[in-house]
Design a protein that fits this description.
Layout: H1 8-11, H2 14-34, H3 40-51, E1 55-56, H4 57-64, H5 68-80, E2 84-88, E3 96-100, H6 102-122, H7 128-146
Antiparallel strand pairs: 1-3, 2-3
Length: 154
């Protein structure tokens, strides 16, 4: 057990607890992806391309909220690994469309297994029913706030 002990008041706040869980989750997922030489952004882009492919680079950036220059570097890396290809958009030849390769689909399957293992490690103290309930409550909270303006405390 760590020597750090949070103040009791903090440890009772759902927002603080969610932040702590997020820290652990981020570390576990990052370690899992790093074992394959990948990052969270690599995984995110590959995952998005399985749902909708091909996509323009601009569409990927908007959908994932990744800065254009950061996305360019991520796509260059994925392309160098032959996990994606960029093809000229026939409707607008100034634009590239990005799609997964067969190797990219295989890499994503491996990454998915590693990320699933990280989820299991994160939620290890919970029973299956508790995991389902936690996921349901987190999704409900995220969906609620996603539909409302951020000016709540203005």
């Amino acid at each position: 057990m760590s020597e750090y002990q949070s103040p009791r008041r903090l440890a009772e706040l759902p927002s603080w607890l969610a932040g702590q869980v997020s820290r652990y989750a981020t570390r576990l997922v990052a370690e899992a992806l790093a074992a394959e030489g990948m990052s969270r952004n690599h995984f995110t882009v590959l995952t998005a391309l399985t749902e909708k492919s091909p996509m323009s680079q601009a569409e990927i950036g908007r959908r994932l909220c990744i800065d254009r220059s950061d996305l360019h570097a991520i796509l260059n890396d994925l392309e160098a690994r032959r996990l994606i290809i960029r093809v000229v958009d026939e409707a607008d030849r100034r634009r590239n469309r990005v799609q997964l390769t067969t190797a990219g689909k295989g890499a994503l399957r491996r990454l998915d297994r590693r990320v699933d293992d990280a989820q299991d490690a994160l939620l290890e103290p919970l029973a299956a029913s508790e995991r389902r309930e936690l996921r349901r409550l987190l999704k409900k909270t995220v969906d609620y706030h996603a539909e409302r303006p951020a000016e709540r405390f203005s």
